[in-house]
Amino acid sequence: MSAKRTSYAELAGLFLRLGATSFGGPAAHIANMHREVVERKKWLSRQEFLDLLGATNLIPGPNSTELAIHIGRSRAGIPGLVIAGAAFILPSALIVLAIAWLYVAIGVLPQSERVLYGIKPVVIPIILHSIFRLGRVAVKSKELAILGLAAGVGSLAGVGELTVLFGAGFVALILARQQKGTGLPSAFILPAAAALSTLALGIWPLFLYFLKVGSVLFGSGYLLVAFLQADFVDGRGWLTQNQLLDAVAIGQLTPGPLFTTATFIGYILLGTWGAIAATAGIFLPGFFFVALSHPFIGRLRQITWAQALLDGINVAAVALMLVMTWQIGRVAIVDTMTVSLALGGAVALAVFRLNSAWLVIGGAVVGFLN
Q1: What gap in Å lies between CA 232 and CA 220, rounded to an integer?
Q2: Residues 174 and 64 in one domain
Q3: Taking Cα atoms as reference points, which of 276, 120, 257, 146 lies closest to residue 204?
Q4: What is the pLDDT of residues 17-61, one digit of tens each?
Q5: Is 1 within a domain?
Q6: Considering only CA atoms, which of 167, 156, 130, 15 is closest in space to residue 76?
Q7: How far is CA 104 from CA 97, 107, 110, 142, 272, in A?
Q8: DSSP code of 240?
Q9: What confidence tens digit (pLDDT) does each residue in 278-311 have?
Q10: Do the domain assignments include residue 198?
Q11: How far separated are the first and last CA of the chain, in Å rounded?
Q12: What is this structure's pTM?
């Protein structure tokens, strides 16, 4: 890791660019961050990056956004924490806000199928490139390799992400303690999600609703959609089913965090101030939890049982990224053109080390012209 602190301007510039160009969901975001901060800038070692990634799985909120916040905290303290997180969120939130305004004005989404057609295939090699490099660090033993395989199988079988991650960590912890002939630590507590209350529609209640969701939601951003389906569509009738489906489509089309779906929903319900309230509510807990947990990450590596726990979570996280990539690939790579885009992207990364942002832009152009 580079000992020199990163300037606020450099930190903001990097994460504004990542927030504006990182398509493909959390796995792609993480892959892009790894490429930039580990391989290009060498701000973190791969092990440090993996530990930060593992730490995001221990707290609620969007993993890739919290990883950006952790990186900012590592490189420039508390101000860096705020700058990196805000810079990563801002481009996506502004893009979604603009699309929401257009959506309300014309009632439908602009046609985006052709652009997505070209973007999705090139995202696959970007993710796989990062998974390969992270996997070389995460898989430290035969036992961890088997554990990673089991985590992948569990995910494919429908086991929830949180269960897979903490299950792998717990198994790794048991194995480590058995090898040392000792028992489990006296306290091993898994976080639990609290029940959400129903709130009347208004700026402040909307902010509180998304604040509560951001405080209890683990795992994929798609879990946010499940909450919205239950509370806003089925429960209160504030959104139609088509509006929610359109919100999901926007999350796929736009770069940056999928949680900016909240920006779209907020605008649909209460205009610009609703979008601001929903966006602030859903992301604020992540800043708080990262600030609270970050000072303890380095110490975790000095505690034997915590190190085993992190190793298990890290290898499971890599397995989940691989499963997610396979699932995306089944939808993204569907014909000769998309196969060519994916293979071309892989060659561009491996041989020419092309920046992933250019791959995404190239894929979008090819898709649009196709």
Answers
A1: 19
A2: yes
A3: 276
A4: 999 988 777 778 888 899 999 999 999 999 899 889 888 877 778
A5: no
A6: 15
A7: 11, 5, 12, 54, 12
A8: -
A9: 999 999 999 999 999 898 887 766 677 777 887 8
A10: no
A11: 43
A12: 0.70
